[in-house]
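Re: Re: ligand-bound prediction request (bumping)

Still looking for help on this. To restate: I need the protein modeled with cytidine-5'-monophosphate bound, output as structure tokens. Inputs repeated here so nobody has to scroll up.
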Amino acid sequence: MNTFDLQGKHIVLGLTGGVACYKAAQLCRDLQREGATVQVVMTEAATHFITEVTMQALSGRPVFTSQWDARPDNNMAHIHLSREADAVLIAPCSADFIAKLAQGRADELLSLLCLARPLESTPLLLSPAMNREMWSHPATQRNLDQVAADGAVVLGVGTGDQACGETGDGRMLEPADIVTELIAHFQPKRLTGRKVLVTAGPTFEAIDPVRGITNHSSGKMGFAIARAAQEAGAEVLLIAGPVQLPTPHGVQRVDVVSAQDMMAATQQALPWATVLIATAAVADWRPASASQQKIKKDGSGEVPDLHFVENPDILKSAAQSARAQAGELYCVGFAAESQDLVANAQHKRARKGVPLLVGNIGPTAFGRDDNQLILVDAQGVTELPRASKLLLARQLVAELARRLDPLKAA
Ligand code: C5P
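Reply:
Sorry for the wait, this slipped through. Here it is.
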């Protein structure tokens, strides 16, 4: 789903030599779909892997390949390209190009414009792509440390099959992940140093091996919050009930099934966390004992005699923990209500013992990509009007960061 998060951004997309150049065509398209304009610059090596024709046709702009290109009025392509860019993104970025950047060399247009870019205002993001031996070579790792120290943002690499037939680290990230990294780069880093634990999705309480009790929670709000917290610079652990959603880029995920599983996973992670955001729709009750075998219908009309026990309250027990009481763990609860949202949210905030309770109307939120929220804390009620769940998650992160300010980042 496109969020148009790059609307109004002008990106210089630099291609250096590598088989992963074939993915740059998709990357160019994906950047545009998020609203960016793209100016492609290619090294001579890159033109051996993908043509300027392809990249011009996709980007809708002539491609630059030479510092001697006479098209700019002042004949200084390296200056005007780097001045109009909101970011320079090199993908794929070869081992050789990283070495050049590490030395500050500028003997062709792309390295020249990287060196000539205003350091403070024009970020440089590198998406490396190379053979696993080249990647792990001490020279490459040394150069990566150097370019990072000089202000470049070095994106990670993927692991898996390589064009050379070997398997290991060094594959370029997928275009969608690179776009996500770029979008995240433009988000304010409000949660740097925070360790955020998010519970999300429904739980599933088994009746027997084939049946169980669950609910309509899609997990989308919790996953959006995990993404927004990661974009804001936090380390994020997402504990997810059974949902069919992709893990947000850069987020650690633990999958669980039942409320008891979720409780155990949360308890294990809580000593690490400085923030808990409990969005999960945890089942209130579970069958007292799940049958080991499928309960059969025998035709007599008799129905199973199910007994229920209450599930542990994950949020409440976290909010009562010594770390939460000492201000080392900030707990945020969610309430999905069907009516009287403010009163119910205020009541739930008190009952759970959390400083911040976020309310939404369940039937108009479950499964949808948009939502509307109210935030209830000691100061009162703040409304976040209907918007996409990702936008609301970013607003919630901003609200959270304001409330966390007095606390020290761990
Ligand atoms: O008690 P209720 O389900 O109405 O409260 C909702 C809030 O409490 C949510 O933040 C939910 O994640 C959390 N919760 C929990 N463990 C439970 C029940 C709810 O963490 N067993």
